[in-house]
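Hey team,

Filing this mostly as a record. A colleague (T.K.) asked me to run one chain through the structure pipeline before their review meeting, and I want the input and output archived in the tracker in case anyone asks later how it was produced. No errors, nothing strange. Just documentation.

Input sequence:
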Amino acid sequence: MVTLLHIDSSVLPGEASASRSVAAAFRTAWEEQHPEGTVIYRDLAANPVPHITADAWSAGYTAPSERTPEQSAAFAAREKLIEELEQADAILIGAPMHNFSVPSTLKTWLDNVLLLGRTAGESPSARSTPTVVVASRGGSYAPGTPREGFDFVQNYLEAVLHRTLGLDVDFIIPELTMAPRNPAMSELIPLYEASRKRAFEDATTKAKELAERLAA
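Output structure:
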């Protein structure tokens, strides 16, 4: 049986969140292909993981037999997150843009799972795991737009997930999600609707393609 690690980080619930909605469409299509599979789900907004501490960080570079009780206790929670990453056959991450970057809860999760010599380094333990990131944003940061260069979500996640953790990363980007709620963006609603439609189609397609790839 295959295992999907699904992570949401939007502070908005349900359909109010573009990243959650599109990720949910991916998961639904995935579960249709793998009805007996396992889904490990973490809602980082509802249940944030602990910020990494000095004990949790230093324990990662200390032999288990040499750790202090404080280090062992702090690393236990971190180890669980790392093991979930390593056990996954595929990863799905909802990563909305918050103030031009990722939510702090997602950054905290990444701080916990990134461990040089294990998940990062010459032979990352989760290397090549297919990973789909739903990176939603209220506006558009594409080349030629007024805020081109303000996107610190996709570049950051590409660097951490692909270049550091070695994951095989693919992005789905629903944009202009604020258009229906911001009168100043009303003329952009058709572009928003097209982006939303494309994102849901991509989610379903990528889930089915990935399921077939893993079954081969």
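Quick notes for T.K.: The chain has a mean pLDDT of 95. The helical segments are 18-33, 54-59, 69-87, 104-113, 154-164, 189-215.
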